[in-house]
Design brief:
275 residues, alpha/beta, seven-stranded mixed β-sheet, 9 helices
């Protein structure tokens, strides 16, 4: 197989970023579970979770497959794998383990019933090529199931100036960092380019309004992880972003305007390879 170029992960692998991933998972976990259920992830299956980060998608999957199944989560960050492994032990998920590996060059003799991932294909230099490579590790009738974002789908009614500024900071930072901000819309084409059967798809989002939504903290946290890139690319200064007060300012502006905004839409796509 020809060498595959690995891109840097624009959000980094700091402890702050790993905590953000856990917060994000709590916010979007039900949406991902819906995709995996529709894809047929079930008890007794052996699943590969790529780009595991802090482990939350692997934990969700482990609960679906139960102790009669297994989950292997891979991530290229040793720090992420250590944290995910410790969390799995704390949760008593003995059938969920993690390994340091680059998904774009992953090799194993093990065969899986499914390969899953959330918000991972958007960071790959050639996601279709990676899916073709991963298909070699699926058993006959194995399943691919992925959950990806449409960052440009954020809407707010009535409009809030702070939300507009956030989009102008966050989306270019992802783009200039090499990520595809609207990977959710590219999933069907990516599956086809990988030689996979056309996927089924399903899209959903979380509305944010009032004082109690976790959406304010989730958006502020991703902005915090992106802040080094935002500054490095000259998009905005740390003083302009003022990330320490960002969640409160978002909440206050939303409540003051009696507004409701849509967190980015997530698209799920799943398919099963031929026997």
């Amino acid at each position: 197989m020809d060498a595959i170029t690995t891109q840097p992960y624009v959000l980094g692998h700091s402890d702050i970023e790993l905590r953000r991933l856990a917060m994000q998972s709590a916010f979007w976990g039900e949406l991902t579970e819906e995709i995996f259920l529709r894809a047929g992830i079930d008890a007794g299956m052996h699943v590969l979770d790529i780009g595991s980060g802090a482990g939350d998608v692997a934990f969700l999957t482990a609960r679906l497959v139960g102790p009669s199944g297994s989950v292997l989560g891979i991530d290229r960050s040793e720090n992420a794998v250590k944290r995910a492994s410790a969390r799995a032990a704390e949760l008593g998920l003995d059938w969920c383990r993690f390994s340091v590996a680059d998904v774009e060059a992953f090799e194993t003799a093990q065969r899986f019933d499914a390969v899953v991932g959330r918000l991972v294909l958007m960071y790959l230099s050639d996601p279709a090529r990676t899916l073709r490579s991963l298909a070699r590790h699926l058993r006959p009738r194995g399943t691919f199931a992925f959950h990806e974002i449409i960052l440009n789908s954020m809407q707010c009614v009535p409009p809030i100036p702070l939300m507009s500024r956030l989009a102008q900071w966050v989306i270019p930072a992802f783009e200039r960092g090499g990520a595809e901000p609207d990977m959710g819309l590219r999933l069907p084409a990516t599956f086809r380019a990988a030689g996979l059967p056309p996927p089924e798809t399903y899209a959903a989002a979380r509305p944010v309004a009032g004082t109690d939504s976790a959406g304010y903290e989730v958006l502020a946290a991703v902005t915090r992880s992106l802040l080094p890139a935002i500054e490095r690319f000259g998009i905005a200064t740390a003083a302009e972003v003022d990330v320490d007060t960002l969640a409160d300012r978002l909440r206050d502006a939303t409540v003051a305007a009696d507004a409701c905004w849509l967190s980015p839409v997530l698209v799920g796509a799943w398919t099963r390879i031929g026997a």
